[in-house]
Write a structure and sequence with these properties.
Blueprint lengths: L1 H44 L9 E2 L12 E5 L2 E5 L4 E4 L2 E3 L3 E4 L1 E5 L3 E7 L2 E8 L4 E6 L2 E6 L6
Antiparallel strand pairs: 1-9, 2-3, 3-8, 4-7, 5-6, 7-10, 8-9, 10-11
Length: about 150
């Protein structure tokens, strides 16, 4: 009778230890899942659909007499005529992290210039129209649209 009780107690201790080890082993996978889910959510949030911004030739009147508001972000230089901006650096890829790219949303820039190692591109989304600029692999693209409203 005493031997059976000892075996049951040993079995319960082993089950408790196994459950604890299973819990400890699942923590890294939970962290990986949370990181992956956050990366996917950020990329989706900053993926804005819309018509392409018109690409224009550089012109003195593009930014008006005051000149552009200019800042650098993610290896590119951004210039705008009006408004405010919000930027992020989402990471592409699925479970295996991909390249980091840069996205900036403008709430009403009228005109934009984006200088990258590939060259300078001039966009004219229009007065009061939001624009989202994405820089991937040194190439800038722009769509009319975005959710940023400072």
């Amino acid at each position: 009778m005493g031997h059976a009780r000892s075996l049951r107690r040993l079995g319960a201790e082993m089950a408790g230890t196994a459950a604890f080890l299973l819990l400890v082993a699942s923590v890294p996978s939970w962290i990986v899942y949370e990181t992956w889910a956050d990366r996917i959510e950020t990329a989706a949030l900053w993926s804005v659909a819309g018509p392409d911004c018109p690409v224009v030739a550089p012109a003195a009147e593009l930014f008006g007499a005051k000149g552009p508001y200019t800042f650098s972000y993610g290896g590119a230089q951004f210039s705008r005529r009006f408004g405010h901006v919000s930027c992020a650096a989402p990471q592409g890829g699925g479970l295996i992290p991909g390249e980091v790219y840069h996205v900036c949303q403008f709430n009403g820039p009228a005109a934009l210039a984006v200088a990258t190692p590939e060259g300078v591109t001039y966009f004219k989304p229009g007065v009061g129209r939001p624009a989202t600029v994405t820089v991937r692999g040194g190439k800038a693209s722009c769509v009319v649209g975005g959710w940023f409203r400072a």
